[in-house]
Amino acid sequence: MPRYVYVDNSNIWIEGRKVSAVNKDMAYDVWDAANNNILDLGWKYDFGKLLELVGGTKNGLKKAYLFGSRPPQNDSLWEAARQGGFEVVVEDRNVQNREKKIDTGIAVRMMEDSYECIADKSADEMVLVAGDGDYVPVVHSISKRGIRVVVCFWDHAAAELKGHAAEFVSLNKHIGEISR
Known about the structure:
Elements: E1 3-8, H1 9-23, H2 30-35, H3 47-55, E2 61-69, H4 77-83, E3 87-91, H5 102-116, E4 125-129, H6 136-144, E5 148-153, H7 159-164, E6 167-170, H8 175-178
Parallel strand pairs: 1-2, 1-4, 2-3, 4-5, 5-6
């Protein structure tokens, strides 16, 4: 099955650090971790392993995008992502050093690809690796057109987002597989 994969790097990494903190008994649950800013600062994920998990075999993978904000000059993050099979989309942070344009960038790319790349609505699918409610409109719109959208994220993804997806894949049970 041809797949198009879209990953919100900060979304998966920050929330993954909370899930890892819970798994290591540093926090009672993910809400405790979020409310008290408890993170497993050592947790990282492997781009290639994540892509294999959510994208499947290389034969079925059509495109894979990793979206994020510009890291420091000496950061090897984006090169590792490229080597893991992703096309990298990097945006500059705003003047307050906040990440901007990532969610809308993913939404725009998904919409463009849904019109320009999806050849067979009954076979092709889009995979969103993110979990916040900002993605509900794009997932809803693409799904209404008959294109299957799978959401892969931690269990605490927005309920409304899960509800609009054709399938929800929990990363919680795969944290060991994708950890580095």
